[in-house]
Design goal:
With about 100 residues, this protein is mainly β. Helix content is about 0%, strand content about 45%. The strands form 2 sheets. It has a 4-stranded antiparallel β-sheet with strand order 1-2-3-4, with no helix packed on it. Strands 5-6-7-8 form a 4-stranded antiparallel β-sheet, with no helix packed on it. A hairpin with a 3-residue loop joins strand 6 and strand 7. It is globular. It starts with 15 loop residues before the first strand and ends in a 10-residue tail after the last strand.
């Protein structure tokens, strides 16, 4: 049984392929074919940060329990950890191909 759509966000320039919600429900993180991840306010649906650094589609996203860090994975063979408040890369890890499928 599907529930009706209650909202849409059009912040990305391509398809959204990954979504995570913070444990407190305040933030939504989305990954897209436009090579970015976005942090959105769940309440206002407005963009807080754009996380740009991958060279291909962002296929996996996660947010830590206090909402301070976002992790993104991509087919470019990198996992990136981002400061959610500033949008700056904290760490970049090179990884084996297709490892991002296991990020979630």
């Amino acid at each position: 049984h599907w529930l009706p759509c209650i909202s849409t966000c059009d912040e990305h320039q391509d398809s959204v392929v990954a979504v995570a919600i913070s444990s407190d429900g305040k933030y939504i993180v989305s990954g897209s074919g436009d090579k970015t991840a976005k942090i959105l306010s769940a309440k206002t649906e407005k963009e807080i940060q754009t996380l740009a650094g991958h060279s291909v589609e962002v296929n996996a996203v996660a947010i830590n329990s206090d909402g301070s860090l976002v992790v993104t994975g991509s087919g470019d063979n990198f996992v990136m950890i981002w400061n959610a408040a500033t949008g700056k890369e904290e760490h970049v890890f090179e990884r084996a191909p297709n490892w991002w499928n296991q990020l979630q």
